[in-house]
Specification:
Order of helices and strands: HHHHHHHHHH
Shape: globular
Largest sheet: none
Structural class: mainly alpha
Number of strands: 0
Number of domains: 3
Helix content: 55-70%
Strand content: under 5%
CATH topology of the largest domain: Helix Hairpins
CATH class of the largest domain: Mainly Alpha
Oligomer: single chain
Distance between the termini: 47 Å
């Protein structure tokens, strides 16, 4: 564990390492050629590896993968700072998330009181609603880049919170090809998982890992034994 000074020093040193990689003189050509867009693939991979470490790894695995995700954040911030408009830097990113976290926990940093977790969620949702008041739809802000199962459950959760009716049937003019029919059937299963309080994405990951373990258990050995 590090004290506050040690933490600040470690973050600064990591930031300095990234700056050195991006430097015009003596830096890394590969890093200098990267953009926010070109790094998306790596960010997705690092986040997936972190999820795997959390669900199926050791403490050391989690520590390593958290570091890899942090590196991506620092790199993106450094790229933004080097842009011609100097959009933002790492300090801006840290400041914004700190202030947002404080705003969304008024029972800790403000004058609100929370009797239980339900109260905490209510206060958090109310604070977020104020921040997102400009949104025109209850479904705004659900990232299109989420895995389909996660996005489906997120949209369904928004629908339930808004008290909106279920979307029954298909979109007007949609062709009833085999693929979309399969998709609709899967959505019904995902909705059922939500009603049962199950994270569909995590449930499928667990089932896939179980299947992989079973497949590996019966796989012929390749060492000739």
């Amino acid at each position: 564990m590090h004290d506050e000074t040690g933490l600040e020093a470690e973050v600064r040193e990591l930031s300095d390492v990234v700056e050195a990689l991006l430097a015009d003189q003596g830096g890394c050509e590969w890093n200098r050629s990267q953009t926010h867009e070109s790094l998306v693939t790596y960010l997705v991979e690092e986040c997936a590896e972190l999820v795997e470490a959390i669900e199926d790894g050791t403490v050391d695995d989690r520590r390593e993968e958290l570091g890899d995700v942090l590196y991506q954040v620092v790199l993106h911030a450094a790229i933004a700072a080097r842009a011609s408009d100097g959009a933002f830097d790492l300090a801006d990113v840290v400041r914004d998330v700190r202030l947002k976290t404080v705003r969304r926990h008024p029972h800790v940093f403000g004058g609100e009181a929370a009797a239980d977790v339900e109260d905490i969620v209510r206060l958090w949702s109310a604070a977020k609603a104020v921040e997102k008041a400009s949104r025109s739809s209850a479904y705004d802000g659900v990232p299109r880049g989420l895995p389909a199962l996660s996005r489906a459950q997120k949209l369904e959760g928004r629908r339930v919170a808004a008290g909106a009716p279920r979307a029954i049937g298909r979109a007007a003019g949609a062709d009833a090809d085999a693929e979309i029919v399969w998709g609709r059937d899967l959505l019904e299963v995902v909705d059922r998982a939500g009603r049962d309080g199950i994270d569909a994405e995590r449930a499928l990951r667990r089932a896939v890992r179980e299947r992989e373990a079973l497949l590996r258990a019966v796989e012929p050995r390749r060492d000739g034994a």
